[in-house]
Amino acid sequence: MPASTAITLTPFGAPLHGLFVLLGTVAAVVVFLLGARRRGGFGDERMAVLLGALLCGVLGAKLAVVWRYLDAAPAPSLLGFLIQSGQSVLGGLTGAYLGAIATKRLIGYRASTGDLFAPAVALGIGIGRFGCLLTEAPGVPTGGRWGVVVDAARAARIPGFPPEWIGVPLHPSFVYEIPFHFLMAGLLLHLRARGAFRTDLFKLYLLAYAPFRFLLEFVRGNPVVWHGLTRSQLFLIPSIPLLALTFFRRRRAAAHPPPLLMEPTDA
User: Fold this and answer.
1) pTM (two decimals)
2) Which residues, given as ranges, of the chain have pLDDT below 50?
3) 141 beta partners
4) Who contacts 229 (Cβ-Cβ below 8 Å, separation ≥6)?
5) Contact predicate 10/153, CB 8 Å
6) How far is CA 82 from the centre of its chain?
């Protein structure tokens, strides 16, 4: 395909990526709070769960790419890791999920919050991915006419960008992913309004995103580490069946609740 038929991406710095991540986070918090207000108010417990999910989500997003920073940094440091290491969506999702569960157990909060988190997280990731689109490698080479081209100036800003990909049409993998999250946000809001999957709405989102992300990795351009698979795919291989098992077991239990035990009465 002639390069002239593709869109050339110009260089943008890391601050633009951080701006979209911030915008996505703010949007997610707003959607969570609006949903909580409709459910009867914010409450200290819900706010604690939100903060726990946010803090652990940030931690998970950072820790998931620590290997990448250590491999690339000539003089690794904690400050350099916090500023330059980037983030991982899968790590952030895992951290936020575990953080919400841990916080709820710590404070003894038993009410479901998945229906509050699910559309908020989907919308937040969809917005944040615009930052990835503008600042990261878009994907692997493609012969399709929809490919995008990275020029030499932008390639110099992307750590590890293969020189042979400069000027070559590449899969716009983030363009594939952004609509997925926006569509999921709309679907999850619709399901929540109907009262469907209330206790399992966030698991439904994860169960939809995990196989989609697994397939998307084949055109993302992330480093292949084992038998043609990326680190994200190796993480998802055990995660997908575990998510499916947990989701369907909970749905089955909800559809067939155990019979109530009758209290003995005096004759």
Assistant:
1) 0.85
2) 1-6, 10-11, 260-267
3) 170
4) 217, 237
5) yes
6) 19
